[in-house]
Structures are given as structure tokens and as C-alpha cells.
Amino acid sequence: MTGTVLGAPDIGRALTRIAHEILERNEGHESLVLLGIPTRGVPLAHRLAERIGDVELGFDAAARTGALDITMYRDDLHRQPTRPIGETTLPPEGIDDRTVVLVDDVFHTGRTIRAALDAVKDLGRPRAVQLAVLVDRGHRELPIRADFVGKNLPTSKSERVHVHLSEIDETDEVLISGSSRTGAGETA
Fold it and tell me: Could you read off the pLDDT of 118-157 as tens digits, one per residue?
């Protein structure tokens, strides 16, 4: 079965809610840095930063957002060793003593986030690391949990979740495909 789970307005509302939750949990924006995990986590991080900047006028969205390539930290390189290495870009002030919010599109097994935590450790010493995801589809293999979730989407292992963002795919939507409507997989 294939179907749209979130449309553009739903994604926009979810990101606005997550931005407010981030500000509330951290009592403002003073120490926040957002790092998107490629591919679709990067535009999501920029969108979240823009929403935070709309609420907190002193927040410089461009200067507080970056990208975190986790390719060399993955635990499946032996299975797919020809992955292209992406670029890690940090905000000018770095991540030391900052609250780093990792941003990704689909949260599944937790292995991507484990790799991201290893990458962050090599880049500096943040005060705290938090996780914001657009979709949490379940099936955790590691004891990692998202702090901020746009949509919890219970899935079967045979289903897939496809996140499309206008910056990359020319449309904003979250689709589910697979055997039945009781679950989802991912292409993030």
C-alpha cells in the first residue's frame, strides 16, 4: 500500500511545533546549534532554525545551523563501502559548550544517530545533544530516543517511509509504501 502520511501543511505545522518545543526545553536560544544529518536533515535543520529565528529575534539562523556528515562513522561500511563522503559544516562558534540539536528526517533503528553522536564527539564537547526528527517510525535497535518528533508513525518492517522536501525533491510530503498500512520503512 502506498499513501501520503503528511502533506506540506502538516510538515510546516510539525516543524513549527518542534521549534517551539526546542525553545521551551532549552529556555531560549542562547546556546543552540542545529546540525542536520544529510541528506534531508540539512534542509529540515535550516527550516527549524528559521522558525526559531522568527520567535527569538536575536537568533541568527544561518550562523547557528550546520551539516554533520556521518559517512565514516557508520557501522555498515563493510556492506556498502562505496558511499560518497559528504561535507560537515559547523557554525562559526563551533559546538563546544553548546546545546547541539541533531536534525534528521526519519528515525528508525537508531544507528544513524549513534554514528552522529560519534561524529559530534570528534568535533567538540557540547553541553548537551538533543535529537529532532520529522518522523519516528519505530523498530529501534539501540537505546536512543528522539527529544522532538514531528509525527510518530508505527510501521511494519516491510514498509518504507519516503520523505520528500522541496529543496531536494520539489515537493513537501511524507509517503508510506509497502505491504500494509500498519507500518513504514524509510529512505532517509
Answer: 999 999 999 999 999 999 999 999 999 999 999 999 999 9
> CATH number for the domain including 31?
3.40.50.2020
Q: How far apart are CA 70 and CA 130, in angstroms?
A: 16
Contact 53, 59 (CB under 8 A): yes
pTM of the model: 0.92
CB distance 58 to 29 below 8 Å: yes
Looking at the structure of the chain, the number of domains it has is: 1
Tell me which residue range forms the domain holding 121.
2-73+87-177
Q: Are strands 160-164 and 2-6 parallel, antiparallel or unpaired?
A: unpaired
The predicted-structure confidence for 66-93, as pLDDT tens digits, reads as follows 999 999 999 887 787 677 888 999 999 9
Q: How many Å apart are CA 126 and CA 6, to the nearest integer?
A: 33
pLDDT value of position 179: 66
Task: Write down the H helix ranges in 37-150.
Answer: 41-55, 111-123
Q: Is residue 50 part of a domain?
A: yes
Q: Determine, yes or no, domain membership for 78.
A: no
DSSP 61-84: TGGGEEE---GGG-TTTTTSTTPP
Phi/psi at 51 (nearest 5 deg)? Answer: -65, -40
